[in-house]
# Entry
Amino acid sequence: MGRKLADEIKQAKPFNSLEQEAYLNLQRTAAVLEQALEETLRPHGISATQYNALRILRGAGAKGLSCQEVGSRMIRLEPDLTRLFDRLESRKLISRARSEEDRRVVFVRIAPSGSKVLASLDEVVEGLHQKVLGPLGEKRLRLLVELSEEVRSFS
# Structure
């Protein structure tokens, strides 16, 4: 069994409420998972945010998506998508083009080299997921997914 949050953060006093303890546990867990992903991706020269954007674009196919649509699909909201796309484009992992119908809209597409980077990471990231969450087993994983979705439904 994992360590208790109070021990991890060296909190001597009890939490104000069970809701506070649960909330802080979720935040701490998300931070630990994100750090594990960052460490997994670092040797490949890509950040978790870049990885997320590339996965979204791979799923969009050859048509690509508008910058706004990519932003709405990100796991963690990215305040500066332009800079994110600038970095990915400078590495030739994506391409951008203005819409011919509406010049204000910019479409982003994954480049062949971006698809190649993702393909090389698929097994690595899946291995991380298996290592971190696999021990929970199917029944508890389904419950975790259900509870997570329920918590997010407040918005």
Summary: The CA atoms of residues 59 and 90 lie 21 Å apart. The chain has a mean pLDDT of 93.
